Amino acid sequence: MTGESQWFAVRCIFELDSFYGARGGATPEHLYEERVTLWQTTSIHAALELAEEEAHTYCADETTGYLGLAQAFALFDPPESGAEVFSLMRESALPPEEYLPHHFDTGTERTQHSDDADPPADS
């Protein structure tokens, strides 16, 4: 696609060290962050360039390092509630009960489970 503006989601990976020492006690060797940013531009290459520029700005305080991995996804429709903003497909021999713990739920993520979250304001 050239000339016409389109929305892209770009995922960049970072290493953070600003939390070490603030948590006290033993800390993990590395803390990583995956960030997905949205860009409206004319090509996937332009979106990657903009996202990588922003990634370097995000790391300006020197407590965060950009690892040089940027993955882009062209949105099918403009962003709105429920819009798909990122998709990555990976082939694996692992069955589902092993795939999620291996790649996404290792126990070291800083997450909150949906059953622990506050109920939505409109319910």
Mean pLDDT: 82
The total beta strand count reads 3
N to C succession of SSEs:
EEHEH
- Percent of residues in β-strands: 25-35%
Derived from helix and strand composition plus strand pairing, the structural class reads alpha+beta
Q: Strand arrangement, largest sheet?
A: 2-1-3
Shape verdict? globular
The Cα radius of gyration reads: 17 Å
Contiguous low-pLDDT stretches (5 residues minimum) are none
Major sheet summary line: 3 strands, antiparallel
Distance between the termini: 42 Å
> Fraction of residues in helices?
10-25%
Number of helices: 2
Q: Your description of this structure?
A:
This protein is an alpha+beta fold and 123 residues long. It has a domain at 1-77. The protein is built from 2 helices and 3 strands; from the N terminus they run ββαβα. A 3-stranded antiparallel sheet has the order 2-1-3, covered by helices on one side. The longest helix has 15 residues, at 44-58. The N and C termini lie far apart (42 Å). 6% of the residues are buried. The model has no long low-confidence stretch (mean pLDDT 82).
Could you list some keywords that capture this structure?
123 residues, alpha+beta, three-stranded antiparallel beta sheet, 3 strands, 27% strand
Secondary structure elements and pairings:
Layout: E1 6-16, E2 31-41, H1 44-58, E3 64-74, H2 96-103
Antiparallel strand pairs: 1-2, 1-3
Summarize the structure.
By secondary structure, the chain is an alpha+beta fold. The protein has 2 helices and 3 strands, in the order ββαβα.
